[in-house]
Amino acid sequence: MPAKSVNDIxxxxxxxxxxxxxxxxxxxxxxAYDYGPxxxxxxxxxxxxxxxxxxxSRNDIEGLDAALISNRLMWKYSGHESSFSDPLVECKKCxxxxxxxxxxDQTKCDNCGSTDITEPxxxxxxxxxxxxxxxxxxxxxxxxxxxxxxxxxxxxNVLDACPHxxxxxICQIGKAFRNEISPRGFVFRMREFEQAEMQYFVNPxxxxxxxxxxxxxxxxxxxxxxxxxxxxxxxxxxxKLAHYAKAAVDIEYEFPDGFDEVEGIHNRQDFDLGSxxxxxxxxxxxxxxxxxxxxxxKLSYSDAQTGENFIPYVIETAMGVNRAMLAVMLSAYTDxxxxxxxxxxxxxxxxxxxxxxAAVIPLARNVPELLTTAENIENDLRKLGIGxxxxxxxxxxxxxxxxxxxxxxxxxxxxxxxxxxDGTITMRHRDTMAQERVAIAxxxxxxxxxxxx
Length: 453
Known about the structure:
Elements: H1 6-16, E1 19-21, E2 33-35, H2 37-56, E3 61-63, E4 69-71, H3 72-77, H4 80-83, E5 85-90, E6 97-99, E7 121-124, E8 127-129, E9 141-143, H5 148-152, H6 155-161, E10 168-177, E11 192-202, H7 207-224, E12 233-237, E13 247-255, E14 258-267, H8 271-276, E15 301-302, E16 309-310, E17 313-320, H9 321-332, E18 333-337, E19 343-347, E20 356-362, H10 368-382, E21 388-391, H11 397-407, E22 411-415, H12 417-422, E23 424-429, E24 435-439, H13 443-451
Parallel strand pairs: 3-10, 20-21, 20-22
Antiparallel strand pairs: 1-2, 4-9, 5-6, 5-7, 8-9, 10-11, 11-17, 12-13, 13-14, 14-17, 15-16, 18-19, 22-23, 23-24
């Protein structure tokens, strides 16, 4: 049985050390969460899976890690400072503020049901900063609300350092910050979150071809790499396009309360490089951009064959890493009835995504020979460099198996008394609970086979 609601995942995350409420001992802070020992590992594995697909398996995409704090002018010319806001209404009876587009009934307060609510007004989502020794409190910088804009302003830096012909891309994974008025859905919508975004720069005449290519490429990654069933995902074209977009579609995952966005693919035309470029009048910019008198660099591309100098179009893929982890956990969560009438909770994760790759368990905790053998196996597995390996020395084999089922460990290796006699261990497989005897010398190879699929 799958998770009945996100609350099943919330409970598992707290119980097993995936995700904790931020500032919990002081009452918490809405929209802020801390990732525990296994959450850290799983997030890292999802990041690695994305980076492997976007950078290491290709020759046309470079990586970037830009600053979290950036000059106010960057966000002025990107359009964020003037238009990056949510339409909010306020209930005059209870004081609750709500995003109008997310209300269950736009005529009634979601909190108390009152119909006495204000007209919607814009609410700035960016988190402004006043930095510097002589700062007087005026906003002169922002925490970035997304990673894309810091990619655009580094377009020329990356192209000069690592020359590419079009098309080519630049990608980032990193934190972003938004002053969300109503964080919701556990880690679905937060004030501090993590994005994995790629900006693919193309000749304007090829934009539609590459938009379709990236739609297919990204959907395939969700199913083949993250292991999410295809019937739990769908494309949802935007009903209303942003002013900069020529086309936009979301990849949506079916959460327990319905489909919602986990990644966006956008054809942003020449808006972004055109907005930040010097000497805008030198180029034929299709998008409607704010006149820029502050940029010091032309963000254009010179075609060596045609001699043409132009502003490339951008095809963007933008994924929420926190949302991806939540979708993966929901998809993998299984409440399974066992033949003996009992049940178990198991995360049937892709092995490469599992926070612990293997657990080594001495059958009894007070037998030094068993512990020594287990430690030797643990050390051999650590040398593989495949991720976290755990040694469990509690002596309660049943509880150890259940714990590792819940955190998604693909395989448990039990060292028992027979091990001391014939040099074999019991390898117990998570999804089937099948057990087999394996020679100690073969354990590293077998574990590698399991992790690599």
